Amino acid sequence: MMKAAFGNRFHFGVAISAAQNEGAILDDGRSASIWDNFVRRGGVIRKGGKTSPACDFYHRYKDDLLLVKALGFNSFRFSISWSRLLPDGTGKPNPAGLQFYNDLIDECLQLGITPFVTLYHWDLPANLQREGGWESPLINRWFRHFTKICARAFGDRVKHWIVLNEPAGFTSLGYMLGKHAPGKRSLEGFLKAVHHAAIAQGDGGRTLRQHVDKAVIGTTFSCSEIRPHTDKTEDIAAAARIDLFMNRLFIEPLLGKGFPEDDRGLVQKLNKQNLSWKYTDRMQFDMDFIGLQNYFPLTVKHNAFIPLINASEVKPAARKVPQTAMGWEINPSAFHRIIKRFWKYGGIKEIMITENGACFKDQLSQGRIADNERIRYFEDHLQEVLKLKKEGVRISGYFAWTLTDNFEWAEGYEARFGIVHVDFKTQLRTVKDSGYWWRDLLAG
Ligand code: GAL
């Protein structure tokens, strides 16, 4: 594979996030985030992993950026910790928080790396959660304020912005399934969070447009091809319901299509509980790019025991197809199809693959990690990006997830996605073979 085939304006990037990398949760006036509190509950994170020290990126960002540079990436995606920047959640910024992100941005620019800033990557300040978090309509005011502070502070140098990271992820895992912070399990809470996150997407876009000259504004969505296990009508209907929640729920209102209402069965069930979707024009915004993040496709079947959705996954192991260490199916052509399908919505100016990657059981042996499966994963998915480009899909970037092994949410430190290995006891970094593979690719 040749780098040149992607075109010379292509963003080859690597992505991280504040809650997963920064650590230093008590430093310099930062307040607690919902994740700092959530991890203290017993039994929610594998092997009891905590949000600190993570990769200690707060203190080691210069070294980590040197790695980004040395491996040849031209773009770097990171997120802003809301509780580091605005410890009260609202009000005035924390000078140390401003300083940290200013330094990080300046360091990127000095190295010739384009910063891509994500405003919200799942780490709400805990004090805003006490007032209802994403379930409260106040979140939209808080989020506009946070966005404005970021835009004004960093917008002179940061041009590439991402409003939300995967709203489907934090609303469903955090408010309905209880697996992520804030650990709630309520259909009503989930639907409120969905509603407010969809508004935040539009509000975030408009606020950035107003305050940042020449901004390139996007937001990210997770996407997964959903296939019925058999061609029985009930499995096909189950797949359509999962598709609605995982793929359609957030992008359709953003594109001005409203909430998907064509699955009458599901909508009727929601209406029975007086929880019909509430669409407003504020959810719509003309993004400069749509960030798509794909890790796996899903195969699903009808399952009457699962409330509301009446569907469950048929795992890759049961189907004997390749999978990662997290049990996620590896299927590059399904990646191709789902990206193509989003493109076919129309009205999307550009797509960037803002995350893609895989976790495997890496073995550190004599200072080396021969992670051939990860190399293969990247190579196969990049090939599909090239094919999509040839078919006319405008894809202007690809960000590998992730730079260093980091705090992988409910999986704690047990799931490693990095192209650089981290020894979490010593913080020693070791570039994996996949990192060297990227270096060779990007050196052209
Ligand atoms: C995404 C998320 C990332 C990362 C990745 C791998 O959904 O945005 O933060 O954890 O999954 O699980």
Characterise this structure:
The protein is α/β, with parallel strands linked by helices and 444 residues long. The chain has one domain (3-442): Glycosidases (TIM Barrel), CATH 3.20.20.80. The chain contains 16 helices and 15 strands. It has an eight-stranded parallel barrel with strand order 1-2-3-4-5-7-10-13, surrounded by five helices. The protein has a three-stranded mixed sheet with strand order 6-8-9, with helices on one face. It has a two-stranded antiparallel sheet with strand order 11-12. A hairpin with an 8-residue loop joins β8 and β9 (311-313). It is globular. The model has no long low-confidence stretch (mean pLDDT 96). Bound molecules: beta-D-galactopyranose. Beta-D-galactopyranose (GAL) binds next to loops. Beta-D-galactopyranose is lined by residues 17, 20, 165-166, 169, 222, 293, 355, 401, 408-409, 417.
Provide a compact summary of the structure.
With 444 residues, the protein is of the alpha/beta class.
Provide key terms for this protein.
single chain, 444 residues, alpha/beta, TIM Barrel, 8-stranded parallel β-barrel, 3-stranded mixed β-sheet, binds beta-D-galactopyranose
Number of spatially distinct domains: 1
Structural class: alpha/beta
Helix content: 25-40%
Taken as a percent bin, the fraction of beta residues is 15-25%
CATH topology: TIM Barrel
Task: Sum up the overall morphology in one term.
Answer: globular
Bound molecules: beta-D-galactopyranose
What is the overall number of helices? 16
* N/C terminus separation: 9 Å
